[in-house]
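Re: the request from the purification team.
They wanted to know what the chain is likely to look like in 3D before they choose a buffer screen. I agreed to run a prediction and write the result into the notebook, where they can find it.
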Amino acid sequence: MAALRLPREGRQLGLLLAATGMFLVSTDSLFIRIADADGWTIAFMSSVWSTPIMWCIAVRSLGRDLPERFNRHRGPLLASSLLGSASMTAFVTAVTKTDVANVVAIIAAAPIFAAVIARVALGERAAPRTWRAIAATIAGILVIVGGSLSGDGLSGNLLALFAICCFGANLSIWRRSPDLSRMLLVALTATFTMLATAVPANPSSLDRNALLATLAMGSLFGPAARFCMSMATRYAPPAEVSLFTPVETVCATVWVWLWFDEVPPTATFVGAAIVLTAVTYGVTGPAAEVAPTPPLHT
């Protein structure tokens, strides 16, 4: 029996990084629910834990080249970091204002935003197979959510929509600037998040469980997830990378189910099956059909 070999380069590595990143980021909803605090405070504390760790890693990784790497890509780094900070803060706040299922369902619409933004900003066309997978993915999400997007939690739903718009724009920035230092990017994102949420945050309101939840979210799962997602676009088009956002939709629902004993309805299982089938379809098949040659960026 042949040994399982993980891809080391190319599109398959990009897809593996995307799947891993979305699996890790799916824990964010669980940690936010455990923290049971307002979005500003959770975002602030998670970035407080993340900022020194990521800067230590960035400095150790880049050494004396850090200033030069920053100056070389100053514009994309700052734009991407600000978008990442806005996306994270909006997502965290959204989870505190509406059901987790609502938020992660909206997040699953990322393929639409990523494909459109990549087409407009990069001239990068998504393959027909990718568009068919996107359509099936949206159908699966609609099955999961049903009519829950109406009624209460409108502000949370709108924040989730804003978060995914920022994420889609970031995918295109990462694709257009593959030489961006991902460590530096994650460190800057954490710093901007900490600065943006410092005033409205109230860390004294957090209990022990909340502190541990933000510690796990900010020092391990969050940075690792964002590093994987930003690296994925070096090897795969944004539309394909974003196809893995439904992994978060399914996994986040499972985490809340297991931790809080919230049993999802039958529609969730049916929709999850559709979503996973659509993702599998979207990233498999003849290479020429699923991965058209991207345009050159000058």
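For the purification team: Residues 290-298 have pLDDT under 50 and may be disordered.
Please add any questions underneath this entry.
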